[in-house]
């Protein structure tokens, strides 16, 4: 059984991991003024675009996910030939139309794949499962890493499906952004009133940074901490505590809206990596997707892991 894994480009995983394990991307296109880039998770291209356009005008960006027809064409042109069963894992449907587009495309794919496969010499059936990861950015990566691990271990399609559906309900994503004014401007541009003017003004004036928690499709603040470095250190310390308590998968995914050297220099990061290594947990660090950066701003940190329900203590 040839099992394929598909994610959208908002899923923050290292570029070499994606290439090594043949993970297929549904790219999201970002347009800022006249500048356009399809995000294929090329880290250097992302950083170049960030420095040239995102910092000044990212709040006004337009993000364009793969359409129903583009997803259909990708599958019928390649994936229904290369694989027998595909797991397509998307950013939470509460924040993006990608999941709904993939679901709509799946009906056409399953109706139209037979002559394509037969022409390529395959008479066996093709199957597709679209899964809402119920999370964002680095937290999306946790489910994808587990899908790779299960596939490589020889798990059956049913075992993989059941495990991924369980994980989607138990992945926690955390984010700290540097610039609440940027987030407010971005939210205003999108018609999203989740970040108000007063909270942005107070947060910046007092250097208060909210810790945002993504879980089961919902995102909201769970703490307000003075100072970006202080907030990040408290978050890393908290994640280290959860690692010591035991995670559901041996995986922590981290992404940063900028150069990874800047992430690695943040307070508490080295200690978190040491804790993960001591407890057999793999750390996957990646430059945040271009989609992520235009939505939450340059220099934001996101981190994801699978865990039982818990309360943030920072």
How would you characterize this protein structure?
The chain is built from 12 helices and 13 strands. It is globular. The protein has helices spanning 15-20, 43-57, 68-82, 98-119, 138-152, 157-168, 180-190, 197-206, 228-245, 260-264, 269-278, 290-296; strands at 3-8, 24-26, 28-32, 35-39, 62-64, 85-90, 127-132, 171-176, 208-215, 218-226, 251-256, 282-287, 301-306. The model has no long low-confidence stretch (mean pLDDT 92). It has 2 domains: 3-168, 3-Layer(aba) Sandwich (Rossmann fold), CATH 3.40.50; 171-306, 2-Layer Sandwich (Hypothetical Protein Tm841, Chain: A,domain 3), CATH 3.30.1180.10. Helix 5 (138-152) runs antiparallel to helix 6, helix 7 (180-190) packs antiparallel against helix 8 (197-206) and helix 9 runs parallel beside helix 11. The chain has 314 residues and is an alpha/beta fold. The termini are far apart. The protein has a 6-stranded mixed beta sheet with strand order 10-9-8-13-11-12, sandwiched between helices. A 4-stranded parallel beta sheet has the order 2-1-6-7, sandwiched between helices.
């Amino acid at each position: 059984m040839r099992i394929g894994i598909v994610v959208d480009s908002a899923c923050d995983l290292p570029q070499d991991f994606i290439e090594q394990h043949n993970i297929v991307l549904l790219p999201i296109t970002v347009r800022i003024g006249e500048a356009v880039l399809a995000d294929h998770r090329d880290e250097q291209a992302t950083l170049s675009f960030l420095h040239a356009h995102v910092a000044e005008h990212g709040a006004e960006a337009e993000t364009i996910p793969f359409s129903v027809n583009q997803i259909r064409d990708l599958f019928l042109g390649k994936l229904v030939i290369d694989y027998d069963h595909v797991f397509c894992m998307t950013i939470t449907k509460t924040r993006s139309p990608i999941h709904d587009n993939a679901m709509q495309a799946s009906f056409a794919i399953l109706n139209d794949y037979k002559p394509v496969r037969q022409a390529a010499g395959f008479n066996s059936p093709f199957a597709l499962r679209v899964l809402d990861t119920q999370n964002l950015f680095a937290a999306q990566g946790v489910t994808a890493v587990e899908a790779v691990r299960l596939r490589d271990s020889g798990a059956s399609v049913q075992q993989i499906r059941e495990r991924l559906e369980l994980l989607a309900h138990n992945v926690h994503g955390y984010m700290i952004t540097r610039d609440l004014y940027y987030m407010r401007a971005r939210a205003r541009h999108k018609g999203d009133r989740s970040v108000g003017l007063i909270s942005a003004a107070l947060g910046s004036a007092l250097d208060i940074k909210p810790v945002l928690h993504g879980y089961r499709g919902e995102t909201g603040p769970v703490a307000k901490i003075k100072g970006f470095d202080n907030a990040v250190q408290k978050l890393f310390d908290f994640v280290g505590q959860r690692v010591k308590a035991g995670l559901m998968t041996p995986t922590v995914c981290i992404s940063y809206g900028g150069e990874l050297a800047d992430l690695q220099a943040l307070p508490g990061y080295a200690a978190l990596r040491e804790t993960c290594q001591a407890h057999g947990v793999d750390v996957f660090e990646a430059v945040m997707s271009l989609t992520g950066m235009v939505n939450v701003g340059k220099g934001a940190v996101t981190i994801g892991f699978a865990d039982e329900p818990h309360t943030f203590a920072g």
